[in-house]
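wait is this the right file?? whatever heres the structure
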């Protein structure tokens, strides 16, 4: 049985959706970031960066970093078909865009949420946030152009990449209206994923209806 460390309203939701779509049994361990539970010494031993999510595998080892968790779950449950087989060109594209979004969009979200971590200038937080918002928009735009007819990246087959995009699309840097206007294919992907029977309850508990 897997153990998923995290909480709602964080990127734990993608790991939870991945486990649900893979039909992998898991237990949840609440690490409420809003109550600073990620900052304990006990949790630092699980995730040295003191962030959520973290996943304990059935053998007791720990995987951190959301995309690594998604890729592991896909490979450990190949029957669920949540990523193309390793070594194929389709898998290279899947991993390419997953890493692209983690490095550029998710990390821009970090700069928007915690600007003080990215500047030593006590008056510089607003500039960090504004630059991060523009950086996020630019990289969402690059992925929007890479999306085909959809609704998912690989047409009608859901992949871990789509689960990650569904999550990121809930936190666009700017207004919802401008995101819908600039990234209609990403919005359609996310809207298709969010009503899947296994993702819908996770969407509801994290983002409402
Ligand atoms: N690189 C990490 C980032 C995870 C992340 O951003 N986690 C946020 C919640 S969504 C967090 O734990 N924030 C608390 C903090 O950084 O202090 C991953 O991909 O898993």
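ok assuming it is, sequence goes like this
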């Amino acid at each position: 049985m897997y153990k998923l460390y995290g909480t709602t309203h964080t990127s734990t939701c993608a790991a939870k959706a991945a486990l649900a779509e893979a039909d992998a049994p898991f237990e949840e361990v609440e690490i409420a970031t809003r109550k600073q539970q990620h900052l304990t010494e006990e949790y630092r031993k699980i995730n040295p960066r003191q962030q959520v999510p973290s996943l304990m595998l059935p053998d007791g080892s720990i995987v951190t970093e959301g995309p690594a968790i998604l890729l592991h779950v896909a490979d450990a449950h190949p029957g669920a078909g949540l990523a193309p087989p390793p070594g194929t060109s389709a898998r290279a594209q899947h991993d390419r865009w997953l890493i692209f979004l983690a490095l550029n969009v998710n990390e821009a979200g970090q700069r928007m949420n915690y600007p003080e971590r990215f500047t030593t200038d006590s008056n510089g937080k607003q500039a960090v946030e504004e630059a991060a918002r523009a950086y996020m928009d630019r990289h969402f735009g690059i992925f929007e152009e890479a999306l085909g007819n959809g609704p998912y990246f690989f047409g009608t087959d859901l992949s871990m990449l789509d689960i990650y995009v569904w999550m990121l699309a809930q936190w666009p840097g700017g207004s919802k209206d401008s995101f819908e206007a600039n990234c209609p294919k990403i919005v359609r992907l996310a809207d298709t994923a969010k009503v899947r029977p296994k993702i819908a309850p996770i969407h509801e508990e994290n983002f409402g209806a």
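Residues 10-11, 33, 38, 51-52, 65-66, 102, 106, 110 surround glutathione (CB under 6 Å). so i think its the right one actually
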